[in-house]
Amino acid sequence: MIEISGLCKSFDKEVLKDVDLTIEDNSIFGLVGINGAGKSTLLRLLSGVYNKDAGSIKFDGEEVYENEKVKKNIFFLPDDPYYDRSTTPLTLIDLYKAFYDIDEKAYFDYINGFKLPLKSTMKNFSKGMKRQVFVSLALAIKPKYLFLDEAFDGLDPLARLSLKRTLMKIQEEKEMTVIISSHSLRELEDICDSFALLDDKKITSSGNINQSINKMHKYQIAFDSIPEKEMFEGINFISYKQDKRIITIVLEDEYDCVIEKFKKYNPLIIDEIAIDFEELFIIEVESRGYLKNV
Q1: Which structural domains are found in the chain, ordered by start?
Q2: Which of 294, 277, 291 is nearest to 180 (CA)?
């Protein structure tokens, strides 16, 4: 189990402040937030790359920073992993064998599956190809804790699908704890069981993805004339959008309750629409004043 308590980190300015979060073992956890929210910083702190300014980060009760025993069980794949100009997929594995036990057969199987040239220098690879090499390495190491920063960035649809399937298979077999930071929220919804939203330097929302989505309900309601929002007294909208005679709203109320609340306004039709993780994220950040001009 990973337990984060009162975590603070500053560089030229404060990045994280009083972050509290618990991540259960044997889970795939999605870390989400707008650009600059501090996701990469948090992953580097979890990996022991950065030292905290205050608070604690404990893996099964032990602090991570400068703790070789804990770090041996962690593999962190950043958005821009290091390699030199002469590195090939073949020489990359030799470098990491000094630090990790690697399933070499699995590594070369992944490389071949991605159809990557084994002996070509990676400096000439596209961003997606480089990502595929390092993803192959991460999956072949099979650590207890795997942290992926922007895991799907640069991957084509088939590569993303292959990564998701392989990641879920290995995570279940090895009972790994995986933390994924990604802008692709639909990809996260496919594989993550829980999440945390990092905003305003701290965790503002977290929990089980399905349970969080099921707390909110989205409806489209049509009227025979243009309604005014002010007329809906006592209704607590999480989100409210209007296009002439049609309003699109998000509430915590279930369908029967919405029917009862709106019947006095004589709606022509009330339809419930499915809501997904990406929309849940947008609603959360909009409620904090973001995206208003997008």
Answers
A1: 2-208 (3.40.50.300), 217-274 (3.30.70.1560)
A2: 277
Checking if the pLDDT of 292 tops 50, the result is: no
H or E segment at 198?
strand 194-199
Question: Helix 104-113 crosses helix 127-141 at what angle (to 10 degrees)?
Answer: 150
Q: How confident is the model at residue 285 (pLDDT cuts 50, 70, 90)?
A: confident
Which of 242, 282, 32, 4 shows the shortest CA–CA distance to 150? Answer: 32
Selection from 80, 208, 74 nearest residue 141 by Cα? 74
* SS3 at position 29: strand
Q: Quickly count: other Cβ atoms within 10 Å of residue 5's Cβ.
A: 14
Widest CA span in the chain: 72
Quote the CA–CA distance of 257 and 131 in Å, as a whole number.
48
